[in-house]
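Input chain follows. Return C-alpha coordinates only.
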Amino acid sequence: MKKIAIFIFLIVLIIVGGCVKPLTIKPQILNIEGVEIKVSLLDPYEWSSLSKDILVINLEITNFRKEAIWVYPLSKSVIIDSLNRQYSPIREITYQKIEPSPKFSLEFLFSSQKPPEFSFSIEFGGEKQEREILKLIEKFNLMKFKDGRIFPGATVSGILIFYISPYRLPGRLIIPDIYLEESMRNVNFEFILER
Protein backbone atom coordinates (compact mmCIF):
# COMPACT_ATOMS: atom_id res chain seq x y z
CA MET A 1 0.00 0.00 0.00
CA LYS A 2 2.84 2.38 0.85
CA LYS A 3 4.54 1.66 -2.48
CA ILE A 4 1.35 2.49 -4.39
CA ALA A 5 0.91 5.75 -2.46
CA ILE A 6 4.53 6.76 -3.11
CA PHE A 7 4.16 5.84 -6.81
CA ILE A 8 0.99 7.95 -7.15
CA PHE A 9 2.69 10.84 -5.33
CA LEU A 10 5.66 10.70 -7.72
CA ILE A 11 3.41 10.66 -10.79
CA VAL A 12 1.44 13.68 -9.49
CA LEU A 13 4.73 15.47 -8.73
CA ILE A 14 6.04 14.81 -12.26
CA ILE A 15 2.78 16.04 -13.82
CA VAL A 16 2.70 19.21 -11.70
CA GLY A 17 6.43 19.82 -12.27
CA GLY A 18 5.95 19.43 -16.01
CA CYS A 19 3.12 21.98 -16.02
CA VAL A 20 5.25 24.77 -14.53
CA LYS A 21 7.17 26.21 -17.45
CA PRO A 22 9.93 28.77 -17.03
CA LEU A 23 9.43 32.34 -18.16
CA THR A 24 10.94 33.07 -21.58
CA ILE A 25 11.46 36.10 -23.80
CA LYS A 26 10.93 35.78 -27.56
CA PRO A 27 12.74 36.71 -29.68
CA GLN A 28 15.95 37.05 -27.68
CA ILE A 29 17.71 39.08 -30.40
CA LEU A 30 16.11 41.75 -32.57
CA ASN A 31 17.92 43.74 -35.26
CA ILE A 32 16.04 46.71 -36.72
CA GLU A 33 17.77 49.17 -39.04
CA GLY A 34 21.26 48.29 -37.78
CA VAL A 35 20.42 48.47 -34.07
CA GLU A 36 20.65 45.07 -32.36
CA ILE A 37 19.09 44.36 -28.97
CA LYS A 38 19.68 41.14 -27.02
CA VAL A 39 17.58 40.37 -23.96
CA SER A 40 17.73 37.51 -21.48
CA LEU A 41 16.31 36.78 -18.06
CA LEU A 42 18.70 36.58 -15.13
CA ASP A 43 18.17 33.92 -12.50
CA PRO A 44 15.78 35.44 -9.94
CA TYR A 45 17.12 33.18 -7.15
CA GLU A 46 19.62 35.69 -5.78
CA TRP A 47 17.16 38.57 -6.16
CA SER A 48 14.36 36.74 -4.33
CA SER A 49 15.79 37.88 -0.97
CA LEU A 50 14.93 41.42 -2.05
CA SER A 51 11.44 40.55 -3.29
CA LYS A 52 9.59 37.58 -4.75
CA ASP A 53 8.04 39.76 -7.47
CA ILE A 54 11.24 40.98 -9.14
CA LEU A 55 11.99 40.35 -12.80
CA VAL A 56 15.63 40.95 -13.79
CA ILE A 57 16.40 41.42 -17.50
CA ASN A 58 19.89 41.56 -18.98
CA LEU A 59 19.93 44.00 -21.90
CA GLU A 60 22.63 44.49 -24.54
CA ILE A 61 22.36 47.10 -27.30
CA THR A 62 24.81 47.21 -30.23
CA ASN A 63 24.89 50.07 -32.71
CA PHE A 64 25.89 48.78 -36.19
CA ARG A 65 24.87 52.06 -37.85
CA LYS A 66 27.25 54.76 -39.09
CA GLU A 67 25.59 57.28 -36.82
CA ALA A 68 25.20 57.59 -33.07
CA ILE A 69 21.95 56.54 -31.42
CA TRP A 70 20.29 57.63 -28.18
CA VAL A 71 18.62 54.97 -26.01
CA TYR A 72 16.53 55.28 -22.85
CA PRO A 73 15.58 51.77 -21.65
CA LEU A 74 15.87 52.62 -17.95
CA SER A 75 13.53 55.59 -18.15
CA LYS A 76 11.16 54.58 -20.97
CA SER A 77 10.92 50.74 -21.13
CA VAL A 78 7.64 49.15 -20.09
CA ILE A 79 6.19 45.71 -19.57
CA ILE A 80 2.50 45.38 -20.39
CA ASP A 81 0.79 42.22 -19.16
CA SER A 82 -2.28 40.53 -20.65
CA LEU A 83 -4.57 42.65 -18.41
CA ASN A 84 -2.96 45.80 -19.91
CA ARG A 85 -1.28 46.73 -16.63
CA GLN A 86 1.93 48.66 -17.27
CA TYR A 87 5.17 48.27 -15.27
CA SER A 88 8.27 50.47 -15.47
CA PRO A 89 11.84 49.58 -14.48
CA ILE A 90 13.08 50.35 -11.00
CA ARG A 91 15.59 53.18 -11.06
CA GLU A 92 16.69 52.94 -7.46
CA ILE A 93 16.41 50.28 -4.78
CA THR A 94 16.13 51.60 -1.24
CA TYR A 95 16.41 49.39 1.79
CA GLN A 96 15.34 50.41 5.25
CA LYS A 97 17.03 48.54 8.05
CA ILE A 98 14.56 47.03 10.48
CA GLU A 99 15.76 46.80 14.04
CA PRO A 100 16.12 43.08 14.61
CA SER A 101 14.89 41.25 17.65
CA PRO A 102 17.39 38.85 19.18
CA LYS A 103 17.06 35.14 18.44
CA PHE A 104 18.28 32.63 21.01
CA SER A 105 19.21 29.06 20.24
CA LEU A 106 20.29 26.21 22.48
CA GLU A 107 21.65 22.96 21.06
CA PHE A 108 22.18 19.64 22.79
CA LEU A 109 24.33 16.91 21.22
CA PHE A 110 24.15 13.38 22.55
CA SER A 111 26.54 10.61 21.66
CA SER A 112 27.08 7.14 23.11
CA GLN A 113 30.85 7.61 23.11
CA LYS A 114 31.09 11.18 24.48
CA PRO A 115 29.50 13.13 27.27
CA PRO A 116 26.57 15.34 26.24
CA GLU A 117 27.51 18.69 24.70
CA PHE A 118 25.50 21.87 24.40
CA SER A 119 25.90 25.24 22.79
CA PHE A 120 24.10 28.52 23.28
CA SER A 121 24.01 31.40 20.78
CA ILE A 122 22.36 34.76 20.37
CA GLU A 123 21.79 36.14 16.86
CA PHE A 124 20.40 39.59 16.20
CA GLY A 125 17.90 39.15 13.38
CA GLY A 126 18.95 38.35 9.85
CA GLU A 127 22.33 40.11 9.80
CA LYS A 128 23.62 37.76 7.09
CA GLN A 129 20.53 38.27 4.92
CA GLU A 130 20.81 42.03 5.41
CA ARG A 131 24.44 41.97 4.18
CA GLU A 132 23.35 39.96 1.12
CA ILE A 133 20.59 42.48 0.35
CA LEU A 134 23.03 45.40 0.63
CA LYS A 135 25.42 43.59 -1.77
CA LEU A 136 22.55 43.13 -4.25
CA ILE A 137 21.72 46.84 -4.08
CA GLU A 138 25.37 47.70 -4.79
CA LYS A 139 25.38 45.20 -7.66
CA PHE A 140 22.24 46.78 -9.11
CA ASN A 141 23.79 50.27 -8.92
CA LEU A 142 26.88 49.03 -10.79
CA MET A 143 25.09 46.90 -13.40
CA LYS A 144 21.90 48.86 -14.16
CA PHE A 145 21.54 50.07 -17.72
CA LYS A 146 22.71 53.65 -18.25
CA ASP A 147 20.55 55.69 -20.63
CA GLY A 148 22.37 57.82 -23.18
CA ARG A 149 24.32 57.94 -26.43
CA ILE A 150 25.80 54.86 -28.14
CA PHE A 151 28.47 55.63 -30.72
CA PRO A 152 28.74 53.80 -34.08
CA GLY A 153 30.01 50.22 -33.60
CA ALA A 154 29.73 50.36 -29.80
CA THR A 155 27.88 47.99 -27.45
CA VAL A 156 26.27 48.96 -24.14
CA SER A 157 24.87 46.48 -21.63
CA GLY A 158 23.25 46.47 -18.25
CA ILE A 159 20.28 45.14 -16.30
CA LEU A 160 16.71 46.33 -15.97
CA ILE A 161 14.73 45.34 -12.90
CA PHE A 162 10.94 45.38 -12.88
CA TYR A 163 8.84 45.01 -9.76
CA ILE A 164 5.84 43.08 -11.01
CA SER A 165 3.27 41.93 -8.50
CA PRO A 166 1.18 39.02 -9.82
CA TYR A 167 1.28 39.59 -13.54
CA ARG A 168 -0.59 37.77 -16.28
CA LEU A 169 1.20 36.31 -19.27
CA PRO A 170 1.71 36.64 -22.15
CA GLY A 171 3.18 40.09 -21.74
CA ARG A 172 5.17 42.51 -23.85
CA LEU A 173 8.49 44.19 -23.10
CA ILE A 174 8.67 47.40 -25.11
CA ILE A 175 11.84 49.45 -25.52
CA PRO A 176 10.61 52.60 -27.29
CA ASP A 177 12.12 55.72 -28.80
CA ILE A 178 15.61 54.66 -29.80
CA TYR A 179 16.60 57.86 -31.56
CA LEU A 180 18.77 57.75 -34.71
CA GLU A 181 20.87 60.89 -34.45
CA GLU A 182 21.44 61.86 -38.09
CA SER A 183 18.28 60.26 -39.55
CA MET A 184 16.22 62.01 -36.83
CA ARG A 185 13.86 59.03 -36.47
CA ASN A 186 12.72 56.84 -33.59
CA VAL A 187 12.73 53.02 -33.59
CA ASN A 188 10.72 50.82 -31.19
CA PHE A 189 11.55 47.26 -30.11
CA GLU A 190 9.04 44.76 -28.74
CA PHE A 191 9.61 41.37 -27.08
CA ILE A 192 7.07 38.79 -25.88
CA LEU A 193 7.18 37.37 -22.34
CA GLU A 194 5.56 33.94 -22.05
CA ARG A 195 5.73 30.59 -20.27
